[in-house]
Recover the amino acids of this structure.
């Protein structure tokens, strides 16, 4: 499968079961159902799923803050890695928010997740800091990345 084979659409509460299944397969310390439900129902969130046929193969959860679009969670089912799905999900976010892109985009990524860091850099994200011990499962540091960060943000 290539990324061209997926449909990207907005997510809602009815997608929680599939989101949770992917989350558990993708992450050692998965988000809770309540965390996803909260983001899916927030008026400041934009959430997309990638679907092949009727099955979800990935998702992205984004929240609008005063100074940034924050990529809160991005996951692709491990059986569908390296097919451009995460790139497509991020590109949909950029397309949908293009009239508000001056807000900037930010995310955190495990410092050991080199493939994700490479993807983010290829899309224009830059390292802007570190959150020490950010991940609860192993206290790994998170790299803070920004794309189009507002100039008034001090680092």
């Amino acid at each position: 499968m290539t990324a061209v084979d997926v449909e990207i659409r907005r997510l809602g509460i009815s997608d929680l079961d599939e989101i949770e299944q992917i989350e558990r397969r993708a992450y050692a310390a998965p988000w809770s159902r309540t965390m996803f439900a909260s983001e899916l129902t927030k008026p400041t969130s934009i959430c997309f799923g990638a679907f092949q046929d009727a099955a979800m193969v990935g998702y992205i959860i984004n929240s609008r803050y005063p100074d940034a679009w924050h990529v809160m969670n991005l996951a692709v089912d491990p059986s569908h890695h390296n097919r451009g799905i995460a790139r497509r999900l991020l590109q949909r976010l950029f397309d949908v928010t293009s009239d508000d892109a001056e807000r900037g985009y930010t995310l955190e990524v495990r410092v050991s997740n080199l493939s994700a860091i490479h993807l983010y850099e290829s899309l224009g994200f830059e390292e802007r800091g570190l959150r020490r011990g950010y991940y609860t499962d192993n206290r790994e540091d998170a790299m803070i990345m920004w794309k189009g960060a507002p100039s008034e943000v001090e680092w």
About this structure: The mean pLDDT is 91.
